[in-house]
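Troubleshooting log. The previous structure file for this entry was overwritten by mistake, so regenerating from the original sequence record. Sequence copied from the archived sheet and checked twice against the printout by T.R.
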Amino acid sequence: MRKLKRRNAPSNDEDDRLPLYDSSTATSSNGPSSRAKQRKRRSTGPCWPWARLVMVSGIVLTVYCGWIWWKAPDHKPPIPPILHRAFPYKRDWYLPRIRDDVKLEEWDGPQLIHVVHTRFMQEQPSLTSLGRARLGLFRVFCLPTMIEQTTNHFLWIIKTDPDLDAEIMQVLVDLVSPYPNFFLVASNVNFRINEDFPGAWRDGAQARDLALSRTYTGNQTLLEVAMALEAQLPILETRLDADDGLHVEFLEQMQYQATKAFRQSALKWMYWCTRRHMEWHWIDEVPSSFEHDSPLGQKIVEYGALQGVQHSNLCITAGYTVGFPVGVSEPDVPVYPHQDLVSMIRKLPSEKACGLKPSEKCLQFVEEHIFEAVRSRTHTSAGMLKVRLEQDGLVNTPWLSYAYWDLLCKSFEIQRMQVRWMNEYLTSHIIDIARDNLLGQCTLGHSCKDSAKEELAKVIEKYRNRTTSG
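Regenerated output below.
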């Protein structure tokens, strides 16, 4: 029988034969071989203990940092604070510290802390078409009114999603970084929007959130001093949506009224708001109340439409302010949605009121100017409230239209040519904007109304058909 050859058998050639024994590895009677000596040197040499120490330290640090990361809330920074503070000079953002070494003498300005809160694209970081449109509205309507305020003794906290599109984030940073009291913060945490969002600057809830959140702009020392003095100074907190603006004298007037109110020893808290404002509507076709070839109608298509609005018993969000005197805790101040504030305060019994009688005095309207705020009404709105143009209030005379635009430019420092650009931009991107807004409905902290969804779906269908037919 033929003998099968082993598949991996070594060759008969002497040079190709596998070594079975190497005398260099043998142990002589005089001591270990050179290879054994090398093994012993590696195991007992001076470098091994240090390597073991580095390895164990690395494991401990990794576990500790992972524990910090896991315990942090959803707005945690991308790396644990202990690592971030280890490299303080190699960063383009910082984490504000909660300090206990700040003295009242370090506060420069009026003897109160005034904080303005603005939200931008929270919980909606991936909706880039919507984000770019809202960035444009922020740039045209909101930012100029804050830059030109007649006082700079306030902190503007702009909170945005930590995962916001990098390009949009960079533009935001570039826009607000020249101003030391403007703080762009990566956080999805909000306070005192309604009863479901407790916490405020008073009692340190805001400070604790800021201490965990990346802050891209603003003077760190100024922010930390204001955080530390939350219990030693009266506090004002004002709301401003990112697509709205305030009269350039609003914050100064607000501080003046608050300073007078805080002198009353009986005062426990106070609300302020405005009910007169201008509205700007995006328009891409001549309104039905105008002749098609009307010069004013054509101007409206080019620049958008302005309306004047006055409510009798309704506070708007822009400029909605609450005041905390020294010694008053945040839970002692009731929280009401802006649309219910007037009616709820009027119903308050005296023991739950602000300390003033009647309880109506716990709310003051800021009405020093014709219009205290400007609000943009576009399809970027989450709630889509009053986005559809109301023909009854539309300006239909040239002189009144000119007066409105003059007020917008002089009282709010908003440039007419930028408004024109905004109107054109919305017209060019309306389908993508409405589609993103529809996707963003019902995300955390945003509106969730069937009426808004239906309206956005109609807009998408309308302009898609127009594009197809065109």
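The radius of gyration is 32 Å. Archived copy saved in two places this time.
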